[in-house]
């Protein structure tokens, strides 16, 4: 009987996939297909959760089959992330109109990412204090204890690294190894390696223009092919969102969410406040935040569903360029740097909130201005090269708590609500990188105002 129910659930998923394919054939916009997939996924997941429960064999085996679509889609995205990061950064150099803009663009993008992460940390601190989360006591359940065991190796690695060693770990070693994502810091290593190639290209372009032009054509050709690959994979987005959302809804531990509801609510309050800060920054440079929201919503929806900033990179870059009017070079810089530097949710809000929560248990006054200032500084510094890896928020939290000499056990105790909170954090991360792109484009005069201001249009996918 269980097998029959599993087959029935698989058939139901296939029917919904067929419906989304029909919508594509009818040329419904990409945004409508993504939002439809989100809604259908929630309904399908709730049906499985309510009828079969979270831990039943029917649910487990159904989700295993659903993962062919959901996890398979994420695997395709991960496949193109490193090539896309590398070629995007190099291409950004070849597309620079003025070499003199390079330093300004890089400084603005990185400065905005780090600055907004520091603001996010401050918001996380205020939110934790406002919700009286300091000194909160959590009981480790079976799942949490298992997770703590899984974290032991990571904890040891973090505790054994000094700040200088952490900085050294960001530097590329073997570029071919880095492109495989072999190290936790491989993403930022690839960014640095690609930036070095880009700087070398600028020197060649100045001294030997014919070789520079030839190299630029090669990079443009590779970039075109990689972006074509990206387009092919992004067309699968609605199907991936459907399966991923169904899995999240069907397997979420709602009892744990209720138990830790205060922390979940506080986390989302902080995320929403930080998102409002993004809107205020856009207002400061004269851009309509409502227009921004309408155009980036499909990207944030996918980021929310997939919980993958890296997987969202292709959509991120395309939306910045096609919908927001950010030049290709700046869009590539902001999108790629945003994977590994200054992610507002994972590297900003989350570590700061945990530090405030555990501070009293270590005999530290969370209201001490020196403690708060030090915490914000360490969060900003630790955001380099951490958030772009799998489990970035966990790694960032471990780094910050270790650097502040605070207990790290809370990282494992909150694992039951991690997926729910990580959805919002990831969407905020992506919004932060896109905001950095728009702000940088505006400040350097490389933002197409007409494209930004025109009514919402569907991406060419």
TrEMBL record:
<protein>
    <recommendedName>
        <fullName>L-cystine uptake protein TcyP</fullName>
    </recommendedName>
</protein>
<dbReference type="InterPro" id="IPR036458">
    <property type="entry name" value="Na:dicarbo_symporter_sf"/>
</dbReference>
<feature type="transmembrane region" description="Helical">
    <location>
        <begin position="6"/>
        <end position="22"/>
    </location>
</feature>
<feature type="transmembrane region" description="Helical">
    <location>
        <begin position="370"/>
        <end position="389"/>
    </location>
</feature>
<feature type="transmembrane region" description="Helical">
    <location>
        <begin position="395"/>
        <end position="415"/>
    </location>
</feature>
<keyword id="KW-0472">Membrane</keyword>
<keyword id="KW-0029">Amino-acid transport</keyword>
<feature type="transmembrane region" description="Helical">
    <location>
        <begin position="34"/>
        <end position="52"/>
    </location>
</feature>
<feature type="transmembrane region" description="Helical">
    <location>
        <begin position="265"/>
        <end position="285"/>
    </location>
</feature>
<feature type="transmembrane region" description="Helical">
    <location>
        <begin position="105"/>
        <end position="131"/>
    </location>
</feature>
<comment type="similarity">
    <text>Belongs to the dicarboxylate/amino acid:cation symporter (DAACS) (TC 2.A.23) family.</text>
</comment>
<dbReference type="InterPro" id="IPR001991">
    <property type="entry name" value="Na-dicarboxylate_symporter"/>
</dbReference>
<dbReference type="Pfam" id="PF00375">
    <property type="entry name" value="SDF"/>
</dbReference>
<feature type="transmembrane region" description="Helical">
    <location>
        <begin position="72"/>
        <end position="93"/>
    </location>
</feature>
<keyword id="KW-0812">Transmembrane</keyword>
<keyword id="KW-1133">Transmembrane helix</keyword>
<feature type="transmembrane region" description="Helical">
    <location>
        <begin position="185"/>
        <end position="204"/>
    </location>
</feature>
<feature type="transmembrane region" description="Helical">
    <location>
        <begin position="225"/>
        <end position="245"/>
    </location>
</feature>
<keyword id="KW-0813">Transport</keyword>
């Amino acid at each position: 009987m269980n097998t029959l129910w599993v087959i029935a659930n698989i058939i139901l998923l296939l029917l919904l996939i067929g419906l989304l394919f029909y919508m594509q054939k009818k040329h419904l916009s990409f945004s409508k297909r993504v939002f439809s997939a989100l809604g259908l996924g929630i309904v399908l997941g709730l049906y499985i959760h309510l009828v079969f429960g979270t831990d039943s064999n029917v649910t487990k085996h159904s989700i295993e089959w659903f993962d062919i679509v959901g996890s398979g889609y994420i695997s395709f995205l991960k496949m193109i992330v490193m090539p896309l990061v590398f070629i995007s950064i190099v291409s950004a150099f070849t597309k620079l109109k003025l070499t003199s803009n390079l330093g300004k663009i890089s400084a603005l993008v990185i400065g905005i990412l780090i600055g907004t992460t520091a603001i996010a940390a401050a918001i996380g601190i205020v939110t934790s204090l406002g919700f009286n989360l300091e000194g909160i006591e959590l009981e480790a359940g079976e799942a949490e204890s298992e997770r703590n065991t899984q974290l032991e190796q990571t904890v040891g690695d973090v505790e054994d690294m000094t700040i200088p060693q952490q900085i050294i770990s960001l530097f590329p070693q073997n570029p071919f190894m880095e492109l495989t994502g072999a190290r936790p810091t491989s993403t930022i290593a690839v960014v640095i390696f690609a930036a070095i190639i880009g700087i070398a290209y600028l020197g060649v372009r100045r001294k030997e223009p014919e070789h520079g032009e030839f190299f630029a054509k090669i990079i443009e050709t590779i970039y075109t092919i990689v972006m074509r690959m990206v387009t092919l994979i992004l067309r699968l987005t609605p199907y991936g969102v459907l399966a991923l959302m169904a899995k999240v809804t069907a397997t979420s531990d709602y009892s744990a969410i209720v138990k830790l509801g205060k922390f979940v609510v506080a986390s989302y309050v902080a995320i929403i406040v930080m998102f409002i800060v993004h809107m205020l920054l856009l207002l400061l440079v004269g851009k309509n935040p409502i227009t921004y929201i309408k155009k980036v919503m499909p990207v944030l929806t996918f980021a929310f569903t997939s919980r993958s900033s890296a997987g969202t990179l292709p959509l991120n870059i395309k939306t910045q360029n096609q919908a927001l009017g950010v030049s290709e070079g700046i869009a590539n810089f902001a999108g790629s740097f945003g994977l590994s530097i200054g992610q507002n949710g994972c590297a900003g809000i989350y570590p700061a909130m945990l530090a405030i929560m555990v501070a009293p248990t270590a005999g530290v006054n969370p209201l001490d201005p020196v403690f708060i200032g030090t915490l914000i500084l360490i969060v900003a510094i630790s955001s380099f090269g951490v958030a772009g890896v799998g489990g970035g928020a966990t790694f960032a939290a471990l780094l910050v708590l270790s650097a502040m000499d605070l207990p790290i056990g809370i990282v494992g105790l909150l694992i039951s609500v991690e997926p729910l909170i990580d959805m919002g954090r990831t969407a905020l991360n992506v919004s932060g990188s896109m905001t950095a792109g728009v702000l940088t484009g505006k400040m350097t005069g490389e933002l197409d105002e007409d494209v930004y201001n025109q009514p919402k249009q569907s991406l060419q996918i």
